[in-house]
Amino acid sequence: MAKIFQETARAGMTRVVEPVARGLLRAGVSPNAVTVAGTVGVLVGALGFGARGQLVAGALIVTFFALTDMLDGTMARMSGGSTRFGAFLDSSMDRVADSAVFGAVAYWLATEGNHSGVAAALLCLAAGGLVSYVKARAEGLGMSGNVGVAERTERLLIVGVGGLLTGLGVGPALEISLWLLAAVSIFTVGQRVAHVYRQAQLVGRE
After folding, report:
1. According to the annotation, is 33 in a ligand binding site?
2. How far is CA 190 from CA 59, 146, 181, 183, in A?
3. Residue 83, annotated as binding a ligand
4. Residue 32 counted as an annotated binding residue
5. Does the annotation list 8 as a binding residue?
6. Across 38-55, average pLDDT
7. For 69-78, 107-116, 155-164, which range has the lowest pLDDT when averaged over its residues?
8. How far apart are the first and last CA of the chain?
9. Mean per-residue pLDDT for 36-44?
10. Crossing angle of helices 55-66 and 152-167, rounded to 10°
């Protein structure tokens, strides 16, 4: 059910993203430029606003620029496919952006004396990095690891919604979203490890 929802949501977003991608390509904007611009936008939202407790502005900015992760991929596909450097840059910038988001959240929660929230934010940062690493390591070994309930876009949306609600006065929403995100991220790591294990077993029997 979760996978069906993800695919439906992504299909809906694709219909919105594709016209924008075509327009940017016609204007001479490269997918790599969009990747870097999206990361800069996330940094501004996270460090310039979120870390200072301006959660509504920070959440909206981060969510908006996080969606460029779909935009640059769509542009790359439309222009003939992603280059090796483009894929490398996209993955690297994703890690920079994720570190900024959860680092900013942890910093603000620490200033508020919310030690439980800090622990959840740091766990999200570690688990999110592991989600991405397991996939990258599997692909480096010739297998796939692109499965799981909490891919990067979903993870940023969860923390974004939590930050937005807390900024609007729903006090524990951010901490709750962080613990939820930590749980689904760890579950996703388990899904990917199991997926790779099954592939490795099949290869071993050949």
Report:
1. yes
2. 28, 12, 14, 11
3. yes
4. yes
5. no
6. 95
7. 69-78
8. 33
9. 94
10. 160
Distance CA 51, CA 111 (A): 9
For the record, the structure tokens of 80 come out as 């003939």
Q: Which residues are catalytic?
A: 94
Span 63-82, average pLDDT: 84
Please give the structure tokens belonging to residue 46.
């996270």
98 known ligand binder: no
Per residue, what are the HEC states of the chain? CHHHHHHHHHHHHHHHHHHHHHHHHHCCCCHHHHHHHHHHHHHHHHHHHHHHCCHHHHHHHHHHHHCHHHHHHHHHHHCCCCCHHHHHHHHHHHHHHHHHHHHHHHHHHHHCCCHHHHHHHHHHHHHHHHHHHHHHHHHHCCCCCCCCCCCHHHHHHHHHHHHHHHHCCCCCHHHHHHHHHHHHHHHHHHHHHHHHHHHHHHHHHC
pTM of the model: 0.86
| pLDDT per residue as tens digits for the range 81-140 | 778 898 899 989 999 999 999 999 999 999 999 999 999 999 999 999 999 999 999 999
